[in-house]
Amino acid sequence: MSDPSSLSTYDTYLLDMWGVLHDGTVAYEGAVDAVRKLKERGGRIMILSNSSKRKEEGIKLLGRLGFDVERDIDEVITSGEVSFQMLSGDESIAFSWPPLASILSSSSSLRPPRALVLGSGAGDAEYLRAAGWTLSGPSDADLVVARGTFTIDDGTGAIVSKSKGYGEGAYESTLGTMLRSAASRSLPMLVTNPDRVRPDADLSPMPGTIADAYEKILGETMAADDARRLVRRIGKPHTEVYELALRKKENIRGKASIMIGDALATDVAGSGKSNIDSVWVVRDGIHFKDIRARIENGLDYEDAVLAELEQWNRGDVVGDYAAQPTFCVPNFKW
Q1: What DSSP string runs through 261-314?
Q2: How many Å apart are CA 233 and CA 215, to the nearest integer?
């Protein structure tokens, strides 16, 4: 980082994964070393990721990419793991959701809860079954679970996929039909990754876009507040995951925590909502495509970054909280 001594006032570092540590395939240059140096300074390192995958999968990925998880990382919290615990009825999760609590209380071994799964095609069915659920279509489901934006699994074996002969048009058409069918029954939706875009070259859509679309459909026949109550997004920028992370924190030196992330909408705005300082990582994250375009149009790097931040705060504020990073760095590296 440009001035590592600035982080000496913190004892806990909450790190995003994709866009800060890696691009899904390889670790960013210097990221492994930066994690190690923060740990050597006596800090507590906690991964706080909106990934739909469970904690164990995140740990395995970090290991494959060269991070020493056992030595350098104290805790891994993913939206997928928190959602799994909620679906399993784990009482250790302090924040409950009435629609899900009602489903779980009325289910039994003879009639387990049923879910329509919108996923990635990688372990979606196993994820739900391990939590004690069966898969179903919208006419019989108790819940819609949004884990990804590539497949639709109603438990019949006829999985609709963007990549297996259906094509994006057929997938989108089927998705729209399924969402409207679910909305006609006022089914709740659990979103295990609230991100709207992936930090890749195309800024590919993520489950947060499905949540937005479903909430809009619900709002056609009910009040907006009622529609919002039926869609539960698990992950940043919502304060529950920050609270969960800080409950797991061991106060090392009586100092503060800081979030290090690339996304203004989730990492930076979310940390502000939770009264946590933040580091905005620019060059490897979702905003650099727009920042690079500003640079190509004549702005220098610093002015381009400031322009992106100002435009975002004018147009996409999360609730009443603007994105105001405490620090801004090009990359997560020493």
Answers
A1: ES-IIIIIHHHHHTT-EEEEE-TTSTTHHHHHHHHHTT--HHHHHHHHHHHHHH
A2: 11
pTM of the model: 0.89
> Which residue matches tokens 């800060």?
20
The token pair at 123 is: 């372990």
The answer to whether 14 touches 276, Cβ cutoff 8 Å, is: yes
Q: What is the pLDDT of residues 3-45, one digit of tens each?
A: 555 787 898 999 999 999 999 899 999 999 999 999 998 889 9
Q: Are 88 and 54 in contact (CB under 8 A)?
A: no
Beta-carbon contacts of residue 78 (< 8 Å; ≥ 6 apart): 47, 49, 50, 51, 52, 53, 54, 55, 57, 58
In this structure, what token pair is assigned to residue 304? 């381009």
Cβ atoms of residues 263 and 309 within 8 Å: no
SS3 95: coil
